[in-house]
Amino acid sequence: MARAMVTRRRASQGDVDVPDTQAQEELAAEDTTPSSKRESRSSRAAKAQAGQGAGWGAYSKAKETAKKSSFNSEDQLKVEDDPILIKFVEDGPFESYYQHWVQRGKGKKRSWTCPGEDNCPLCDLGHAVRCLTLFNVIEIDGETHTPKFWVCGKNAGDQVEEMALSKRHSPINDETLYFEVIRKEAEFGFKYTLNPLRESELEEAEVVSDEEIDSFLKDLFTSGPATVDPVDQAGLGECADEIVKKGDK
User: Which residue of 19, 25, 31, 72 is surrounded by the most CB atoms within 10 Å?
Assistant: First the structure.
């Protein structure tokens, strides 16, 4: 059966391009205090990202981008109370990135995609990050087989990695290999368990055909606004300034 891998289109971790040498030299020539660095980054990002252009075409494009946000995308795998049966389409993740999760006041939280510690106001403050890893999977519900992207935190990501590196379950996208994903409440958040299953253990309707796999491989999810929240450099700077002002992290 044919296999394909997503081509990595970005040279850096996170969701922004690495600044060119000239831009790095210009930044080094500026005032390098944490406050001035945040202000400089924020102003450049605001100029580059604030507007989407004039006209109804730009409005339609902006709405479509917002609709594809990872917070409300129907294409993201949701693991909740009931176990879910999945099949990995590739033998590894198509993206890994860092995310800050900031508690701002009682009951208020906000996540921020980290552009990398060399260009992140929250990293400048020593704010912790978590690693998120994204996989192309097929969600299986009886005879309904739906392509999804799965965003894994460290708990689930470590289990997938362990399976992927083991002799018994490698590659994780073996044509006869499936996984049951179970989520349970833990002391802090949730704990995920992956149970490997072979095709022989499934109902006939649950088995994904070679033709389906080939079809899914032609339209894989990739890193972008639909799967990774874009870096908001201006917002990161404002958040960092607020943290410094309030004297907390």
Answer: 19
